[in-house]
Design a protein that fits this description.
With 567 residues, this protein is an alpha+beta fold. Among the domains are: 228-342, Roll (Ubiquitin-like (UB roll)); 351-565, 3-Layer(aba) Sandwich (Beta-lactamase). The protein contains 21 helices and 25 strands. A 5-stranded antiparallel β-sheet has the order 20-19-25-24-23, with helices on both faces. It has a 3-stranded antiparallel β-sheet with strand order 4-7-9, with no helix packed on it. α14 runs antiparallel to α15 (416-428), α14 packs across α17 and α15 (416-428) runs parallel beside α19. The longest helix has 36 residues, at 2-37.
Length: 567
């Protein structure tokens, strides 16, 4: 009895759930039908696609924009002649071609007979008109003229020759071609782009014949093969060496000269044979001339004997002339090799002697130099080499920033206490952030005006690519600093103290004798050093600006200058 009651209760509960489910389905169906009946005519159906572009739920305005954008990015491959690779693949937008989908999307509809069918919202599709034909404009013609026509040409390839064993064989010519603009325009305007499909056009080529035909090359090959049957005989001193045909043929290059096949002998290809066969027979090592100079003047010379070397260019031309039947007897050509020169340079302890040292040292070492020397006491000698040559300053510009800052401190417009820490970092540690802070605060033009006003005419912060300066300008500024010109006493001591504490000491300080106050600059191959040297033989200013040199070279130059000054 209890069992049957429990079964009856389960049946009743099941029936209740079925009734509830049915009611829910009816309600949901009613809502869906109402949605379908009143679905906005200006909105695309949930799963609508136009030429493969998903525009579901979108307003027609947004759908038009999305499809038109997709077409603007659609590529069209343009092939030339029978090429397998497109020579241009512009987008429709690039070629000024438009596919406007406005009308076709606006004409889509969700008709009433579909709206009353259950669930049609999810499976019905708007009937979309076919893809519209592309539109072209004057800009399309301009694109064809500017972007396609200059490249719509295949240059013909002339027939040439190549070695095969001990004979020359013909390499056939390949005709070229060029496009006709009207034909290109017509072909492109026949294109029917559609998203999801590949669109390509192939423009025809008008054939361009090569200047050197297979027949021309065959005539040349027959003549050269006949001429080279027994190789190339060439005299070397008193003997004749015959170069085998199989050795000569790989040396030959062929080119078009005035519409004819021209043969030349390749120096690189023949070098190994020449070096092994001819060079040992003709080379004579040159002697050495010993030359002594005093400052810029040669005071004695012992001339060495001239040598002899193979004149490769003339010898190659002689071989070419034999091959082309322009000469029957050829000989290895030689040229005179002048003796080596070994200099013993001496210098007087004068302005001229110091200038000669600077110039000769710069010429004897790698790199570009600008050097300026000013003695502040004693004989007060001066010398320079490329002293007015313009260099990018690298960090030596911080000396100019320091001068402008101190000028303002002396005038009371800047305060030393608030500037001291960054000032010392800028000079002693070459801190860029501090230098840029000062420079931005004072202004590039103002700093340039400040240094130009005291005679540094070749230094500039505003010129494109700069800042720029010269060795003479840096030496002039340090000369003023040492002598107290344009610097107050206290600010002079501040700057010299910071320079004396400079942590970069591989240049002038490493070669000079005595205490050195300097500021270096290094950047992208530039190495500069501007210094006041307090040497036992007197105080002097030395600036060395270089590109492509080394700190060791700058130090060695400073050492030699110190030595000559001490005489």
């Amino acid at each position: 009895m209890h069992k049957r009651i429990r079964e009856l209760q389960r049946y009743v509960k099941y029936a209740d759930w079925k009734i509830l489910g049915l009611r829910a389905a009816i309600i949901a169906g009613g809502i869906l039908m109402l949605t379908q009946i009143f679905y906005p005519g200006g909105r695309m159906l949930p799963f609508a696609r136009v030429d493969g572009v998903n525009v579901g739920w979108m307003s027609k305005t947004d759908a038009i924009k999305k499809v038109n954008t997709a077409y603007s990015k659609y590529p069209i491959a343009i092939y030339m002649g029978d090429d397998k690779k497109a020579f241009k693949t512009p987008t429709l937008a690039t070629a000024a071609i438009t596919v406007d989908n406005t009308d076709r999307i606006n004409k889509t509809s969700y008709p009433w007979y579909l709206r009353i069918l259950p669930t049609s919202l999810f499976w019905a599709q708007f009937k979309t008109p076919k893809t519209p034909a592309p539109a072209f404009s004057a800009k399309t013609d301009a694109y064809i003229e500017k972007a396609l026509m200059p490249e719509c040409r295949k240059a013909p390839t002339d027939a040439t020759l190549k070695p095969t064993g001990d004979k020359l064989a013909v390499v056939s010519a390949i005709p070229g071609g060029e496009c006709d603009k009207d034909d290109v325009t017509r072909t492109i305007k026949k294109a029917t782009p559609k998203l999801g499909k590949t669109t390509s056009v192939r423009v025809a080529l008008k054939e361009l014949a090569p200047q050197i035909s297979d027949k021309d090359a065959k005539v040349a090959a027959d003549a050269l093969n006949k001429r080279l049957t027994n190789g190339v005989p060439i005299k070397v001193n008193s003997e004749t060496i015959r170069i085998a045909t199989k050795d000569v043929l790989p040396w030959l290059d062929f080119s078009n000269k005035d519409g004819k096949l021209y043969v030349s002998v390749n120096a690189e290809q023949s070098a190994a044979f020449f070096n092994a066969t001819f060079v040992p027979k003709v080379a004579i090592k040159p002697g050495t001339s010993f030359i002594t100079t005093r400052d810029f003047t040669e005071v004695s010379r012992t001339n060495g004997a001239s040598g002899q070397a193979l004149d490769t260019g003339t010898t190659l031309e002689a071989i070419r002339q034999f091959i082309t039947d322009e000469a029957d007897v050829i000989a290895v050509a030689t040229k005179v090799v002048p003796p080596l020169e070994q200099y013993t340079r001496t210098y007087s302890p004068t302005d001229a002697g110091l200038s000669a040292l600077l110039e000769n040292y710069a010429k004897d070492h790698p790199g570009t130099f600008g050097i300026s020397l000013i003695e502040m006491d004693g004989k007060k000698r001066r010398a320079n080499y490329n002293g007015d040559k313009e260099f990018i300053t690298a960090s030596t510009y911080k000396l100019f920033v320091a001068y402008s800052l101190m000028k303002r401190i002396d005038a009371g417009t800047k305060d030393w206490n608030s500037s001291a820490d960054c000032f010392n970092k800028m000079i002693t540690y070459s801190d860029n952030a501090c230098a840029e802070m000062f420079l931005n605060d004072m202004g590039l033009k103002n700093v340039t005006n400040d240094i130009n006003a005291i005679g540094l005419k070749n230094s500039n912060f505003t010129k494109t690519g700069g800042p720029f300066t010269t060795a003479n300008d840096l030496s002039l500024l340090l000369g003023m600093l040492q002598s107290g010109q344009n610097f107050s006493g206290v600010n002079r001591e501040r700057l010299i103290g910071a320079m004396t504490s400079n942590v970069y000491r591989k240049g002038i300080p490493a070669g000079a004798t005595g205490k050195v106050a300097d500021k270096v600059g290094f950047m992208d191959g530039l190495l500069h050093d501007a210094a006041i040297v307090y040497s036992p033989s007197g105080t002097y200013v030395l600036t060395v600006m270089t590109e492509g040199s080394s700190w060791a070279t700058i130090a060695d130059l400073a050492k030699q200058i110190d030595s000559l000054r001490a005489q």
